[in-house]
């Protein structure tokens, strides 16, 4: 069982047993049939993993779509795009289609914000020129961008980067996290981003921290979550490794094929979750 498995079980148990809920309240998200999608939730969740010690935040209680997660990160930070056709044609990902604002984009969000403010290049340059600075931040929650168009507000909204003794540490800040569906994907995709950035600036990936301000389980996901909590995944979870091709160093040259997941055998069968939009 991995550290992420234990953290997932603990978090879900806390949400279901002692969390708050939005039942009876007016909520924004809805299911495909138009029914309001209510949540059970807790606030201010913090997890920490030392990648240099093999503490990979990978969930084995179910199959984590880590390849799709990495492709999404490449779309945001390499392509710096909000275009859904590019996401579909280049990466075969369509899960953002529900948030199409009508022009085959998700609005002035995510990759479009990275591009507008040149956030990725500024980060790479600053980490090389002043590694011990305390201003290495990518913030996707730009009010002018949110006002410029419709679209889902960024959930994984900020990364903060710090250097120490040859290691690059990173903190991912999320305003909101769908624990059953996206939480595990967000973890591993941002670890992949951390690994690529670390390689580009000549450092090793160090500590990955994950802060979620609102961690929630949707009301139509409860039975599946209880099933996941009951599972007993593989032993020796610390032997699972995400390996980055050692022959590449340029952030913009990395592709999905440069990542290999070793020793990963998640519990089956996988489960289906109804999307809240």
TrEMBL record:
A biological process term (GO) from this entry: dTTP biosynthetic process
Compartments where located: Cytoplasm
Gene Ontology MF annotations: thymidylate synthase activity
Annotated ranges, domain Thymidylate synthase/dCMP hydroxymethylase: 7-277
Biological or metabolic pathway of the protein: Pyrimidine metabolism; dTTP biosynthesis
Active site: residue positions: 155 (nucleophile), 155
Residues reported to bind dUMP: 134-135, 175-178, 186, 216-218
Coiled-coil region: none
Top enzyme class: transferase
InterPro entries in the record: Thymidate_synth/dCMP_Mease, Thymidate_synth/dCMP_Mease_dom, Thymidate_synth/dCMP_Mease_sf, Thymidylate_synthase, Thymidylate_synthase_AS
Record key words, sorted: Cytoplasm, Methyltransferase, Nucleotide biosynthesis, Transferase
Pfam families, per database record: Thymidylat_synt
EC number: 2.1.1.45
GO CC terms of this entry: cytosol
Catalytic activity as recorded in UniProt: dUMP + (6R)-5,10-methylene-5,6,7,8-tetrahydrofolate = 7,8-dihydrofolate + dTMP
Residues the entry annotates as binding (6R)-5,10-methylene-5,6,7,8-tetrahydrofolate: 178, 276
Assembly behavior: Homodimer.
Function summary: Catalyzes the reductive methylation of 2'-deoxyuridine-5'-monophosphate (dUMP) to 2'-deoxythymidine-5'-monophosphate (dTMP) while utilizing 5,10-methylenetetrahydrofolate (mTHF) as the methyl donor and reductant in the reaction, yielding dihydrofolate (DHF) as a by-product. This enzymatic reaction provides an intracellular de novo source of dTMP, an essential precursor for DNA biosynthesis.
Similarity field: Belongs to the thymidylate synthase family. Bacterial-type ThyA subfamily.
Protein name per UniProt: Thymidylate synthase
Gene behind this protein: thyA
């Amino acid at each position: 069982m991995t550290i992420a498995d234990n953290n997932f079980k603990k978090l879900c148990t806390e949400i279901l047993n002692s969390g708050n809920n939005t039942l009876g309240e007016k909520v924004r998200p809805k299911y495909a049939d138009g029914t309001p999608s209510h949540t059970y939730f807790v606030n201010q969740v913090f997890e920490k993993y030392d990648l240099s010690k093999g503490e990979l935040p990978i969930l084995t209680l179910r199959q984590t779509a880590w390849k799709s997660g990495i492709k999404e990160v490449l779309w945001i930070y390499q392509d710096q795009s909000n275009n859904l056709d590019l996401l579909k044609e280049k990466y075969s990902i369509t899960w953002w289609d529900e948030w199409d604002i009508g022009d085959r984009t998700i609005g002035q969000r995510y990759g479009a914000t990275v591009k507008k403010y040149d956030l990725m290049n500024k980060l790479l340059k600053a980490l090389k020129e002043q590694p011990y600075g305390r201003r290495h931040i990518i913030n996707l929650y730009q009010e002018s961008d949110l006002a410029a168009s419709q679209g889902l507000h960024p959930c994984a909204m900020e990364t903060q980067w710090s250097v120490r003794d040859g290691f690059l540490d990173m903190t991912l800040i999320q305003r909101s996290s769908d624990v059953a569906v996206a939480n595990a994907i967000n973890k591993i995709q941002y670890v992949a981003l951390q690994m690529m950035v670390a390689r580009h600036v000549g450092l090793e990936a160090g500590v990955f921290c994950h802060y979620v301000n609102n961690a929630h389980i949707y009301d139509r996901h409860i039975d599946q979550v209880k099933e996941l909590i009951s599972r007993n995944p593989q032993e020796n979870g610390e032997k699972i490794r995400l390996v980055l091709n050692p022959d590449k160093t340029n952030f913009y040259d990395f592709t999905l094929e440069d990542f290999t997941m070793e020793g990963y055998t998640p519990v089956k069968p996988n489960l289906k979750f109804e999307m809240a939009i």
